[in-house]
Amino acid sequence: MRVAIVHYHLQPGGVTRIIGHTISALAGRDTGIVVLTGQEPAGDWPSEWRLIPGLQYEAARPPVGPEELARQMESAAREALGGPPDLWHVHNHSLGKNMALPGALVELAGRGARLLLHIHDFAEDGRPANYHLMLEKMAHGSKREMSRLLYPVGGHVHYAVLNGRDFSFLGDAGAGGDCLHLLPNPVQLGNHADAPLPGPDTRTLWLYPTRAIRRKNIGEFLLWSAVAGEGHRFATTLGPENPRERPRYEMWKRIAAELELPVEFEIAATCGCSFEELLGQARSLVTTSVTEGFGLAFLEPWLVGRPVCGRDLPEITADFHSQGILLPWLYERLDVPVSWLGLGRIADRAAAGQQQVLDAYGRSESADCLERILAAWIRDGHVDFGRLDEEMQEIVLRRLVRDPGQAHRLRPASLPDPEECDRAIEANRRLLQEKYSLRGYGERLWRLYDQVAGSGVTPLGFLDGEILLDHFLAPERLMLLRVD
């Protein structure tokens, strides 16, 4: 089977990692693979690859149109594989990073090419600048044209998504039958052996293994450090690379230093150990993120014998629960008294945030919009801390530092502390090795490739992108940490 994998770049990151896993997982099978990319790999790459400058991000790519880009992709793939691809495996084509790629894929599909469109992230989900750029520059203001270009459908056009939420959303928009697939990422770390339990000086390390971007909800992590009491250490592993993320991150670092919180930032740069060894030094791994695509943070720690505690994301973890994964030390909400902030302030920020989101996507507010937001945010006189913006989070944090006795009014009042977790560790590790292994990923992907390559060619239609946008912009999903 001849396979052309397409991505904008092969620089370090989540999608590049999955492409690497794909190549490893299919090793030994009768598969010829070439990766078409707009930017050279950062180092050695384990497969054939071809550079096509037109696949770069929009600001850097040469001004080639969709038809010419499709021609270049076909030519490069044919030259590398010795013939036309049996299928095209394309990552994140609809994210708004390149205005020519969606049209090029429609061009290929119109000529009968079998496509597997692998969506990791959506422009409709918290990326309004990307969405607006596509709508204006690519679709010339027509949302119907936007749907046609981004979401073609046909018997030979297949979609793969990471979680049940996205599967459901695309299904409601018109994808389905044999052409919509749930393809969870593999979970793999370099060393699966248990690290020795830390000694008395390190058992109380609570580690957030994350690049501390805004959606990771660093204010909530700092709150837990503020109420933990003596003898506890908290740390994050990496700082943000995106310059736009730095100001808020530096703000939290300044606040942590001013309030003398027991928090270390970017510990991975100074610990002198591997990522797996660093995980093994922690009492527990922590996540306070308010949104994830797949949710590796809920799974990876179990492979090195460490539990996970923190904020639950039911949209994501429902898939893990369905596979039998045990996640008993998570909370769905961190409730703080509304009176600490005032209902007026909360409602004003919610209304402004939702209006900003709707404006960014060219939508109008429904009559019950604010009512639906507040019903999701507030329960029994308490508001979920994760829904708040940094300014309101800082007010709560300073209050707790000033008056630690108020911590009992939080729900939960402390970070869940995993106890007697050996059973969960063993059960989860077994399930991860069984259901999320690289070998299992290769078997699922091979079956999917075989299905896509054997698909019958039918006339093209397209999904209803407006239904997809409705789902992502539902008022109940509003979180101010995702509003620029």
Summarize the structure.
The chain is of the alpha/beta class. The protein has two domains: 2-186 and 437-464, Rossmann fold, CATH 3.40.50; 190-333 and 416-436, Rossmann fold. It has 17 helices and 18 strands.
What can you tell me about this protein's structure?
The protein is α/β, with parallel strands linked by helices. It folds into 2 domains: 2-186 and 437-464, Glycogen Phosphorylase B (Rossmann fold, 3-Layer(aba) Sandwich), CATH 3.40.50; 190-333 and 416-436, Rossmann fold. 38% of the residues lie in helices and 15% in strands. It is built from 17 helices and 18 strands. It has helices at 14-25, 66-81, 101-110, 128-138, 143-150, 164-172, 218-227, 246-258, 275-280, 300-303, 314-322, 343-360, 369-377, 390-402, 422-435, 438-453, 465-472; strands spanning 2-7, 32-37, 48-51, 87-91, 115-119, 152-153, 157-161, 180-182, 205-211, 233-238, 263-264, 284-287, 308-311, 330-331, 335-337, 378-379, 382-384, 461-462. The strands form 4 sheets. Strands 3-2-1-4-5-7-8 form a 7-stranded parallel β-sheet, with helices on both faces. Helix 1 links the parallel strand 1 and strand 2.
List the topology elements:
Elements: E1 2-7, H1 14-25, E2 32-37, E3 48-51, H2 66-81, E4 87-91, H3 101-110, E5 115-119, H4 128-138, H5 143-150, E6 152-153, E7 157-161, H6 164-172, E8 180-182, E9 205-211, H7 218-227, E10 233-238, H8 246-258, E11 263-264, H9 275-280, E12 284-287, H10 300-303, E13 308-311, H11 314-322, E14 330-331, E15 335-337, H12 343-360, H13 369-377, E16 378-379, E17 382-384, H14 390-402, H15 422-435, H16 438-453, E18 461-462, H17 465-472
Parallel strand pairs: 1-2, 1-4, 2-3, 4-5, 5-7, 7-8, 9-10, 9-12, 10-11, 12-13, 13-14
Antiparallel strand pairs: 6-18, 15-17, 16-17
Helix pairs in contact: 1-16, 2-3, 7-14, 12-13
